[in-house]
Amino acid sequence: MLIIRPIAIIWALPYTILGLLIGLFGLCTRGRVLRRWPLEFYGGGVEWFLSRLPSDLVMAMTLGHVILGRTKAALDISREHELVHVRQYERWGPFLGPAYWACSLFLWLRGKDGYHDNPFEKEAWGE
C-alpha cells in the first residue's frame, strides 16, 4: 500500500495544481490555509471564486487534494463530504471532471437534477 499513495497523489495532480493556484490567490487576498492533508483554503479570493460559481449554495469544493471553502465554518461543515471527493479524484484522476460534468448533463437532459442526482454527489452524501 505504500506505493499506492504516491500514485494516487500524482493521478489527481492536474486538479490539485489548479486548487493550489486558487488557494494561493486566496492567500494573496487575505485568505487562510489550514495545514492538514488535504490542504484547505478559505476566505479572500477563494470565497470570491466560490461565490462566482453557478450555484449560490456552494460552501466548499474539492480540486484534487485541495479543498476550497468560503469560510472556516464552511470547511468544518462540509469536510466529510469533500473528503469523499478527494477519494474520487484519487480513483478517477484527470477523468473526474469530464465524468462528473457528463453525468450532470445527461441527468439534466433527462429532466433530473444535475447536482443532487449525480452519482458522484450521491456517494459524497452517503446515499
From TrEMBL:
Keywords: Membrane, Transmembrane, Transmembrane helix. The chain crosses the membrane at residues 6-27. It comes from the Bacteria. This is Signal peptide prediction. The lineage of its organism: Bacteria, Pseudomonadati, Planctomycetota, Planctomycetia, Planctomycetales.
